[in-house]
Amino acid sequence: MAGSSTASDGFSVLVLASDLGVDARPFLSPADRDQEDWHDCAASFADEDFSDLEALQFLRIHGSDKHGNRICRIIGKCFPAPVVSAERLKKYVFYKIYSELPEGPFCIVYMHTTVQKEDNSPGMTILRWIYEDLPADVKDRLEVVYFLHPGLRSRLAFATLGRFFLSRNLYWKIKYVSRLQYLWDDMRKEEIEIPEFVQKHDDVLEHRPLTDYGIEPNPLHSMEASPSACSFGRYEERWVTREFMS
């Protein structure tokens, strides 16, 4: 029949869960990606201006944990995902690693406290894409990822889809930390700064543990996005004039 498809006209369909903030870029073949070699040379960042991202302090290098690993602290609530492109985020991550963590083992303390997917999450596969593009020696130097205040949704997402969207090495490096008191098992308090809103949220979970599972409302919910928590509002107008979404 004219116009009908033959057996050789095969095609495949990849369905992604949009509510998990999935980006299709990591699933593209190398020929379909715009491959760059800027991450192979620290000098590539000489002309980059990251002062706006630095001001947010969502990614900072602190002291060391009890195992001798340098601490890379990431505050998810302070990352403005809608206005920072995946490419710029990746460049910033590489810049911080080359400039402040050039050698030696390190760990990541990711604070998921009061993170909102539409406002703060770059997507699970964006994180995988950044991680997979790291040089092999950097991936080897990453010892552990402390995931503070993961929440029920994040736990379910990683438990059901984490093994598919994250590499095996990264998946098994994640250590869930439900309370700050358990974080102190691996690091000293003077080695890392804990934002006030993170401490307050931890206090709520301590006295109302069902809040962690979405069963009880968080009485501090209206205070979670306070201006003192992050500096996003102060730089929003500045970002509008810059091409971060390219």
In short:
The chain contains 10 helices and 5 strands; from the N terminus they run H-E-E-H-E-H-H-H-E-H-H-E-H-H-H.
Descriptive tags:
35% helix, alpha/beta, five-stranded mixed β-sheet, globular, disordered N terminus
Please provide a written account of the structure.
With 246 residues, the protein is an alpha/beta fold. 35% of the residues lie in helices and 12% in strands. A hairpin with a 5-residue loop joins strand 1 and strand 2.
Overall residue-averaged pLDDT value: 75
| Estimated share of beta-strand residues | 5-15%
What general form does the structure show? globular
Structural class: alpha/beta
Q: How many beta-strand segments?
A: 5
Written as H for each helix and E for each strand, in order along the chain, the element string is HEEHEHHHEHHEHHH
**Uncertain segments of ≥5 residues (pLDDT<50)?**
1-8, 12-35, 222-229, 231-246
Using only C-alpha atoms, the radius of gyration works out to: 20 Å
Q: Number of helical runs?
A: 10
Measured between the Cα atoms of the first and last residue, the distance is: 45 Å
**What can be said about the biggest beta sheet?**
5 strands, mixed
Helix content: 25-40%
Strand order of the largest sheet: 1-2-3-4-5
Helix-strand layout with pairing:
Elements: H1 51-56, E1 59-64, E2 70-75, H2 86-100, E3 106-111, H3 117-120, H4 124-133, H5 136-141, E4 142-148, H6 151-165, H7 168-171, E5 174-177, H8 180-183, H9 196-207, H10 232-240
Parallel strand pairs: 2-3, 3-4, 4-5
Antiparallel strand pairs: 1-2
